[in-house]
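Repro:
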Amino acid sequence: MTEEGAARTEAAAGADGSAMTSPAIERLVGHLGKLPGLGPRSARRAALHLLERRDSHLEPLLAALRNAAESVRACATCGNLDAQDPCAICADPERDGTAICVVEQVADLWALERTLMFRGRYHVLGGLLSALDGIGPEDLAIAGLVARAGAPEVSEIILATSATVDGQTTAHYLSDRLAACDVAVSRLAHGLPVGGELDYLDDGTLGTALKARQRLL
């Protein structure tokens, strides 16, 4: 094949080799590529891995996806994802019903659960207030939070929103909404990470740590 012919073949195949695979594979790659952390190349490698290990990886994955699609739902109380409603956390009588930790997404709930440090209950907002994205209070599960905060057994609401502009805006808005409720409202501390060195931290983190300093003596 001439150099010009090889160039035409490469161009026809596409930079990612898509013309050399079937539409069925391309659809699989396309769907995998929509997952967080998977770009076009990673999605193609994942698709090839699954197809080459059909019995041990692909079929079990299909069964797990089908089961999750049919059984997993959002908890009507807190918004967590589970196969039961209320979810296992809300239904657990051993959990501390006096404290509710407010998080942006289910992923944040899972992250806090991994610490094994919080034994209360949760409330998933489903996002953050954002004027740029057109997300207002009516788009989030704020009304449900206010209703839960009014329960006689609840004494503290912990705001675990992120330390971004939207996260702080949401926290301030929630504080105002919860002011009429007979509960203490607290927020996760922001500042120096465990093991962090001052020289490698950004100015915002250092400034927040200075403002939130604690007295030792």
